[in-house]
Design a protein that fits this description.
alpha/beta, 6-stranded mixed beta sheet, 14 strands, binds zinc ion
Amino acid sequence: MIHEVFPVGILQCNCSVFGDEQSREAIVVDPGDDIATVLDVVARHGLTVKAIVITHAHIDHIGGAQKLKKATGAPVYMNQNDTELQKMMDVQAAWVGTAPPEAVMIDSDAKDGDRLVIGATEFLVLDTPGHTQGSISLWIPSEGKLVAGDTLFRDSIGRTDLPGGDGRQILRSIHEKLMPLPEDTVVIPGHGETTTMGREKQFNYFLRGL
Ligand SMILES: [Zn+2]
């Protein structure tokens, strides 16, 4: 499977493009900004975007979704528990000091157990609330990869001090949904370096005692 990860926007959100080599279908996760770059990656691999997935409705993850949706016609998936947050895009833009992006119409709720398929590859939605109420992670078992949004980082976890954040809930999500994944699962966090579940279990201070 084709997989490119690259930081977009001023907050350097990790955007992922997954592409199936046979069908040339693609899933884009967290197109926060820099949609020209996203489209370049898609075109370079000769892919057609079939789905746009938002791990949570923070501006740096969702900001470019409408632009990408317009350019590709692909439906946008987001957990409906982030709808309130999504409506606060003006407020979020003020936090970051940017202009509010064009609002995106969500096409489909992404909830625990849902599966998206491109080619023969399954992408499973895991509910991982805590950073926001609608935070999800995407697990790709056949690839041994997890796109964790801002739930889990290398050596850290997502902040829970913003509206919708809950410190106990994020730890419960990590404990119940992420810790059971195989140790060699490659974790693509919402920001910063890639890691593995095994490494985080061993070294991440926040996961001690979970
Ligand atoms: Zn976030």
